[in-house]
Amino acid sequence: MSNVITLPPPAKADASTARYQEVAVYGHAGPLTVTLARREDAAGWLHVLLLGSAVGLEIIASLPDDEKGRAVADFVGPAVLRTAELTETEFAAGPTRGAC
Q: What's the pTM value of the predicted model, to 2 decimals?
């Protein structure tokens, strides 16, 4: 049979788990949380994270753990939160028929 495709078995998940120390919470939009955190095993970096049951943990931005990095994070975090809020509002409004 030339039309049979054999797929490799799925890769096993890595048993290691990264741990984060929460620095600040920018807010919540529905089931999503936007937070600033440091990874405990990788010093020197701040991460803006998007957390949610459907998305898991998504790193939005990684910045140096200093005053400049924190300043940038304090712009990125609220921008991500606002985007999530607008998206939630758009989904709540329902689909628009005939829109592109």
A: 0.72
